[in-house]
Each structure stands twice: as structure tokens, then as C-alpha cells.
Amino acid sequence: MATMREVAERAKVSIATVSFVINGTKPVAPETRARIEAAIRELDYRRNVVARALASSRTHILALLHPDLESRPNATVIQFVMSAAHGARERGYDLVLWPINDDEQMSHLLAGGLVDGALLMEVQIHDSRVDRLIASRVPFALIGRTENDDLPFVDIDFDTTIHQAVDHLRSYGHRRIALVTQRTKAAPGNEPGRIMRAESAYREAMAILGSPPAVITVEGTSAGGREAARALAADAPEATAVILMNEGASAGLVKGSRALGRDVPGHLSIVSVSTTRELGEMIEPSLTVMEAPAAPLGRLAVNALIDQLEGVQDAPPHRLIPCTLVPGQSVGPPPSRT
Amino acid sequence: MATMREVAERAKVSIATVSFVINGTKPVAPETRARIEAAIRELDYRRNVVARALASSRTHILALLHPDLESRPNATVIQFVMSAAHGARERGYDLVLWPINDDEQMSHLLAGGLVDGALLMEVQIHDSRVDRLIASRVPFALIGRTENDDLPFVDIDFDTTIHQAVDHLRSYGHRRIALVTQRTKAAPGNEPGRIMRAESAYREAMAILGSPPAVITVEGTSAGGREAARALAADAPEATAVILMNEGASAGLVKGSRALGRDVPGHLSIVSVSTTRELGEMIEPSLTVMEAPAAPLGRLAVNALIDQLEGVQDAPPHRLIPCTLVPGQSVGPPPSRT
After folding, report:
1. Average pLDDT of each block of 10 consecutive residues along chain B (338 residues)?
2. Is A5 on the interface with B (CB under 8 A)?
3. Where in the numbering of this chain does the HTH lacI-type domain appear (chains A, B) (predicted)?
4. For residues A222 and A256, what is the distance between their CA atoms, to the nearest angstrom?
5. Which of A178, A290, A319, B234 could disulfide-pair with A154, CB 3.0 to 4.6 Å?
6. Do B89 and A99 lie within an 8 Å CB cutoff?
7. Same-fold call for A4-55 versus A61-156+294-321
8. Which helix (H) or strand (E) holds B195?
9. Does the beta-carbon distance from A70 to B86 stay under 8 Å?
10. A110 vs B37, B73, B248: nearest CB
């Protein structure tokens, strides 16, 4: 294999300049840089760079595992992914997107030696991926939580978020509030933690309020939103407000309600929880949202993982951040009884 | 370093079973697999797997370069990214997300030896990243095109798409059609190829129609959409229809027009080009869209790149696919003159 000296000689520059380019430590003129990069390729010096990673047992590659990103990734998930990718780059790591849907792919990840660690999204209460990572001793951090709070995680503080959403609706006079949540492929009782935690916080808030809970579960699509509108009118007609924990259904819920003669917010107020303000602004009327702290949580998760890998001790392994209320035009007083 | 035999002995399985797990060639019982994965970690056998990649000069890692995915990635871009990641996995490659914003990061990519090749998105007519990839001899494929059609690319066929959008509007009786496009950070005359090609196809279609063109350029945001609505009313009041090549501005355009007393489609028809049908359905009224072939193009691009890497000859290096018309409720006849 070629040495750095040979690269420098071929590119007609100093060894220091080659080092600047490889490590990105100092700016180098574009023509010089191109000459060095070409020499690296021609001499196959890149293998040395990979070999160095090998010698340190580190590849500086992290995997981001998400079960079904291809089918309709939502706006919030994308913010998590992108902020994690940026955060990784800032610390000299690369983030590989791993659309993992079966056990064989998980084996390739765990046995292949490519990645130093993994970030998991869409974490379920009992998550077999977590069990396998533990068994295989691959370091990881969760975006979301299993039932085991001792694992390293970052998550949305759904307790605080849901209670704030209820308080916001109560301040307008609402007392009968329904929850619209999202159907997933997970087995009943083992839904993603976010869905179970939001529902549990909602039931608690309703108990405090002394109002009966009404939970409607639909697909995260426009059709799902329309189905929710029909189910609300049929099964929870006394509800004057909805907490929506299903961003993909938001447009369908508004349009479906209107089609049934129920205007937003005239007849029905909506707070959309764990979404983006951009998505809220797309709807007519603009939705009042509780915006997910996706960008900070994505960075916190990747930093928590890298801290583990690098043996940094003082990083907090558990972080909960609530969503932020961004008022739109979808919340008003409940219709007066006439 | 450990051998595969040592891994097999420690995990108390046959060498063949270890191979099944590493290469994912046969299903292995979960407990057995966990034992093998743990043995691989304990013996640091993973280094051998990486070493094998090294010996073949291949890492089987591809980079996806996009300049600014963190700031408001749009729905179509995400479909490209996810389908490319899936396509890569199916052929045994991993896709690293590279949010590249400066030359230093590009150097790290080119000199670091991590990736076998690169996919580029948001390709500009003159794209310095392409020049650097060529100079550094890193194989690549473009999602989009520079002015040099000899490079390997896949792209939306904007010519066909825009002409079909114009034909659709003409079939309702529209003759005065404006184009709303997207402002980018690129230097004037060096915008992303998609924007320049769409505008050029639009101008050609207007020339054929004998109508004066009206092009309005705004940010890809709700605020940008509102600005477009005002600019249309002020500068192109005779336009009865809009081709929108700016999915981030779609909700703002509809809301902004309504705020000016111009209903969609009563006063203004809209065809949104190069977007997703899900995004069209979120708007009220649902937008008529020309849906981008993002999923097939993402896969074609990654396959074209892998074909290059593996020396496959018979793959077509250039593929153009037009968008598909998905009618919504945003196109109607032009208002009758009274």
C-alpha cells in the first residue's frame, strides 16, 4: 500500500498538505486538493485510511434503524433523521440509513462489523431489536423508550405535552376532549411507546378533569383522518375538542369533519400533537400544534450514542423534552348549546 | 484476529452456521444467532469482515449528497432518499447520508476512502461537486442533470411533464398560465437543473400557445406561497391558471389567493408539479398534482451507480421519467369575463 509520502510526491505537495486534505484540518486550494484526491485514488491510498479505522476497531459509522421509512415517512421523523445525520457529521461520524424490516437484515448489521453503534427509532414498549442489540453487545441509543427506562434514550415528554394540550383546550372552555391516535402494524399492547404514553397521559388528564375518555385509532393517512371524523361524530358526538396524535391524518380529519357539517374550530377544536408547525400551516384552517422537539432530540440521541462509544461519562443518558405549543386557528370556544 | 472457526467454537455451532448469520444466507434460530453475534463481538471477529471489504478495495458504502436536507426537506426529496436507501440494501450496499455544505466535508468524503461511490441530489447546471468527483475519480450518479448529458443520471422528464400540465389546463380553456417557481441559494443562471428545465419547458409551451409567459419566483415556504399570490394578482392579473413548481409554497399560494378574494379553482386554477399526491391531498381544495416518480428514480439512480461499480455493462446510464397527473379539485374552467 501507498504511504502518505508517496501521495505527497505524486501530487507535488508537502506531506502536511496531504494531511490537511485528509483530515479536513486546514483549507487547501481547490486545484491542489483535486490533485491530492486524484493521487490518493491512483495510489489506492484510501485503503490506508480505512485500515487505520480498522486498527482502532472503530469504523465511525452509526446505523439509524427505522422499521418502515419508505412508506410515507412523516415530517417529524424526517427532522429526527436529518438532525441525527448532521450531529453525527459534526463529531466525525457517518450515519447509515438502515431500513430494517426483517431479522436477516438485523443479522447483517450486527454481525457485519460495519457499524460502531445504532440509533433506534419507532421504539416499541417491548422491542426485539433492543434485545438483539443487547445480546450482540452493539452500543445503541433510543429515540423513544421501551418499558425499561434504564436504557439510554431521548424521548418526547408526552406526559407534559398532553397535559399542556388539555390545559390549552380547557382554557377555551372545553371539557369533553377526544384523542385520535395512530394505528400501527405492532401487536396490540406493544404499540410504539409514543402512542401508548400519549394515550396513558390523556386518560390520566381526563380522570383529573372528571370527563370520560374517548380514544379513536385510525391509519396515519388522509383516509384515516376522514374515518376519525366519522367515528367522532358517531361514537363521541359530545366531544367538542380533539387531541390529534396522528399527523398523517390531520388534513383528512379537518376535511372529513367539514363534510359532516362540523366546522373547525366552530364545532370542533383540534390540537395536533407531536408534529411540525410547517405541517400545521398547510392545513386550512391552520392547526394549533404542539411542535415536536425533533431537531434537538435527534442531536441529543446521536451525541448520547457517541458519548457511549468514546467513554464520555458526564453526558446525561436520559432526556425528555416536551413539545412546544404553536397556536394556529383550529382552537376556539366550544359551540354554545342552543 | 479471530478466525471463523474460533467464532464457531465459542458459540458452539458449526462454521456453516456462522457463515449463514454473517452473510444472511439462511435463517438461523434467534438464540443461536444471538450467541454467534455475541461471539463475534467478544472475539472482535468483526474486524475480519471489515478487513475483507478492505482487501477487495470495496467498502460497499455509498454516499448520498444533498446540500441542505436539514432545512425543511420536502416530501419528494424524502421519497428519493428512502427509495435509494432501500435499493442500496437490496444489492448489499449501505447508504450514508451526507449533508454536505462546504468543501472541507467534500474533502473528507473524497479522501477518506469510506465510500465506493456517490449519489448527488439537487444537481445544478454547473455543479462544482461533480467536477470534484470527476477529478478525484469517485464513481457517481446524478439525480438530476448538469448541462453535460454524458454523465450518468436519472431525472424527471420536465419537458414532457410541463407540456402535459399545460395541455391539462388548456383542456379546461385556460390560455394565460403563469409559472410559480422556487428561489434557491444558487447563483442566478446556476439554479438546480430541475428549476431551469421546468422554466425553459414552460416558456416553450407558452410560445407554442402564443401567450406571454409570467414567471414568479418565491421561497419554498407558506410565506413564499402568499407572496406568490400577491405577485400574481399584481403582476399577472390576466393569468387564470398557475403551474406551481414549488411544493413548499402550495398551501400559502391557495390561502394567499383566497385572502385576496381569488378562490381556487373559481378564479385561479393550480397544477402543482413534481410533488406527492399526499401533499396535494392535504391542501383545501385538494391540489391537482403531477406526481414525481421519486421512488422509481431513487432506485434507478442507486442501481445505475452500483452497475458502474460492479462493471455491469447493459444498464442504461440515462433515464428520464415524466411526472404522473393525479387530478384533484384545484383545476376548473377559467372565470367567464363579465
Report:
1. 80 85 73 84 66 64 73 70 85 78 66 80 85 84 87 92 97 97 81 89 97 95 95 96 95 96 97 92 94 92 90 73 97 84
2. no
3. 2-56
4. 9
5. A319
6. yes
7. no
8. helix B193-209
9. yes
10. B37
For residue A338, pLDDT beyond 60? no
CA dihedral for B188, B192, B195, B197, sign (positive or negative) = positive
pLDDT band at A70 (very low <50, low <70, confident <90, very high): very low
Q: Is the ipTM of this complex over 0.85?
A: no
Give me the residues of B, 156-175, that contact A with CB < 8 A.
none
Homologous superfamily of A158-292:
Response regulator (3.40.50.2300)
Residue B299 near residue B291, CB atoms below 8 Å: no
Cβ separation A282–B281 shorter than 8 A: no
Q: What H or E segment, with its residue span, contains residue A119?
A: strand A117-120
Out of A89, A104, A222, closest to residue B281 by CB: A222
Grid coordinates belonging to B315: 444498464
Q: Which residue does chain A place closest to B87, by CA atoms?
A: A99
Q: Does B188 touch chain A (CB under 8 A)?
A: no
Residues A284-302 have pLDDT tens digits of: 999 999 999 988 999 999 9
Report the CATH architecture of A61-156+294-321: 3-Layer(aba) Sandwich (3.40)
A4-55: CATH number: 1.10.260.40
Average pLDDT over residues A183-204: 86
Contacts of B89 (CB under 8 A, 6+ apart): A98, A99, A105, B95
What are B36-54's pLDDT values in tens digits?
Answer: 888 877 777 765 555 555 5
Residue A101: pLDDT band by 50, 70, 90 thresholds?
low
Half-sphere exposure of B293 (CA within 13 A, CB side): 19
Within a 13 Å sphere around the CA of A292, how many CA atoms are in the beta-carbon half? 30
Which residues on chain B are in Cβ contact (under 8 Å) with A89? 98-99, 105
- Say yes or no for a CB contact (<8 Å) between B111 and A138: no
How far B233 CA sits from the closest chain A CA (Å)?
21
What would the pLDDT profile of A234-246 be if each residue is shown by its tens digit? 999 999 999 999 9
Q: Which chain A residues touch B103 with a CB distance below 8 Å?
A: 27, 30, 33
CA nearest to B18 within chain A: A111
- Which residues of chain B neighbour A67 with C-beta distances below 8 Å? none
CB contact under 8 A, A46 and B112: yes
**Residue A23, Cβ neighbours under 10 Å: how many?**
15
Cβ of A113 and B250 within 8 Å? Answer: no
- What is each CA distance from B308 to A6, A256, B41, B145, in whole angstroms? 28, 49, 34, 17
Q: What is the pLDDT of residue A237?
A: 95
Residues 275-294 in B contacting A (C-alpha not used; CB under 8 Å)? 278-279, 281-284
Domain-wise residue ranges, chain B: 4-55, 61-156+294-321, 158-292
